[in-house]
Design brief:
13 helices, Urease, subunit C, domain 1, TIM Barrel, alpha/beta, 2 domains
Length: 443
């Protein structure tokens, strides 16, 4: 009987494992014997404002060994794999900020949402341990050129800690690129909107605003005092999680939009001598002086949106990246926010493209989704531009990656590993084109 029971358990386990395997999630790329790869002839957009019309890029052991003008040097490709990309465009891999990709799967199904914790003050929450590398959403984002993401928690006043992940890995340990690099706060709102999107209501002042701000201040005061004393028995995990922030080895990201709230958030961070990043920042154009003075970077949520107020310029969201850049502020662009920004990150490049149509040059717009996010995240020494010695995290597009009419990612590499660009949507496209006997493009 014992043998039969063991056999039944074994069969059930195998069946469960078979069911758990997702055919729509490509197998993560692995290092191959081809540790030397040349990409030749493509237009290289370095991410620092420079462009090489006919480039040669050498990838070796996961690093960029060479990024040069092909017409000015001779190369020896013997023993190496050569990919000819004449007429195509090469870019640094795109970096998505303030996203819960890998934490949310289906927005309408609670069981698949793992982006927030119970309670209002959760500095000890770590988004990285909930990150799901088997998400079916990730390949759809990756196939549009996004190779890395800042995965963030949501909810409450103090949401927790964010981490940077590479979007191709077997598990969250393999995916982790910069762990617990930031602390996220949802700054209290001075005004409260009534109703919801289908039935909008009025607007009124938030009478609890001072009380909510005081809750955050009380937590930070207690944590600052706690972190000055190294001997604690027992250890307070919530307060201990904030110590890296007070030593400036972790940034403070504050989700805030309206002008008075932005000023309060800047003064709050200044009082504790914290390195601040404003996330959202729809009114940041009104606060350029104080942002510049305090060296505050801004992560803008969407350019594809309407302005906040009826009396604002309808083009303001499109022009905001250029306004901030001209004011000397480091600006990055993301899609959505930490509440619902996951599948829509596939449109990241096109959001930057809109900024290019309204003030920024093409190369400056590219920086808002490559170099600038890398600087804000503290990983610009290894990613964000195409430069010798950096990780070979790059993408190749048949056209302008920021133009939805011509962009098509043909190759993508993360640390020199060429990743599979297939996804569930492409598979469904092929399936139903075949069903109806129609020809489809081989993408």
């Amino acid at each position: 009987m014992m043998r039969i029971a063991i056999l039944i358990i074994f069969c059930l386990t195998c069946s469960f494992n078979a069911f758990a395997q997702s055919p729509d999630v490509p197998t993560p790329a692995t290092a191959t014997d081809e540790n030397s790869i040349f990409l030749t002839g493509g237009t290289a957009h370095l991410g620092n404002g420079e462009v090489i019309k006919s480039s040669v890029i050498h990838i070796k052991d996961g690093k960029l060994e060479m990024v040069e003008d092909m017409s000015k040097i001779r190369i020896d490709t013997k023993g190496s794999k050569v990919i000819k990309i004449t007429g195509k465009h090469v870019y640094p891999g795109l970096i998505a900020m303030n996203t819960n990709i890998g934490l949310n799967e289906v927005g309408s199904i609670r069981a698949t949402r793992d982006a927030r914790e119970v309670g209002g003050l959760n500095p000890n929450v770590r988004s990285i341990i909930a990150y799901n590398t088997d998400s079916r959403v990730t390949p759809t984002v990756r196939s549009n050129g996004v190779t890395m993401a800042q995965v963030v928690p949501a909810g409450g006043l103090v949401s927790g800690q964010s981490s940077v992940v590479a979007l191709d890995a077997w598990n969250y340990e393999d995916a982790a690129y910069a762990t617990d690099e930031g602390m996220f706060i949802n700054w209290p709102r001075m005004i409260v909107y009534k109703g919801w999107w289908a039935e909008p209501g009025g607007i009124e002042a938030n009478k609890k605003y001072p009380e909510q701000v005081q809750k955050v201040r009380a937590l930070f005061d207690e944590a600052q005092a706690y972190c000055k004393d190294k001997n604690h028995q027992p250890e307070n995990l919530k307060l201990q999680a904030m110590c890296r922030m007070f030593s400036n080895s972790q940034k403070l990201y504050v989700r805030v939009n309206f002008i008075k709230e932005i000023i309060d958030a800047v003064n709050f961070a200044k009082a504790y001598n914290l390195e601040l990043v404003v996330v959202g920042g729809t009114d940041a154009w009104m606060a350029t002086d104080i942002l510049k003075e305090n060296n505050v970077a801004v992560v803008l949520n969407k350019t594809h949106r309407l302005p906040n107020r009826a009396d604002e310029d309808v083009d303001l969201p499109f022009k905001l990246p250029q306004i901030l850049k001209d004011a000397g502020i480091t600006v990055a662009i993301t899609v959505g926010d930490g509440w619902d920004g996951f599948w829509d990150q596939r449109n990241l490049a096109f959001e930057a493209g809109t900024a290019a149509a309204y003030g920024l040059s093409k190369e400056e717009a590219l920086q808002t989704i490559t170099l600038n996010p890398a600087k804000i995240l503290g990983i610009d020494e290894t990613v964000g531009t195409l430069e010798k010695g950096k990780d070979a995290t790059i993408i190749v597009s048949t056209g302008d990656v920021m133009d939805m009419r011509s962009s098509h990612i043909e190759h993508a590499f993360i640390k020199g590993r060429e990743i599979n660009l297939d996804n569930k949507q492409k598979a469904l496209y092929r399936k139903f084109m075949t069903k109806y006997g129609l020809k489809h493009k081989q993408h």
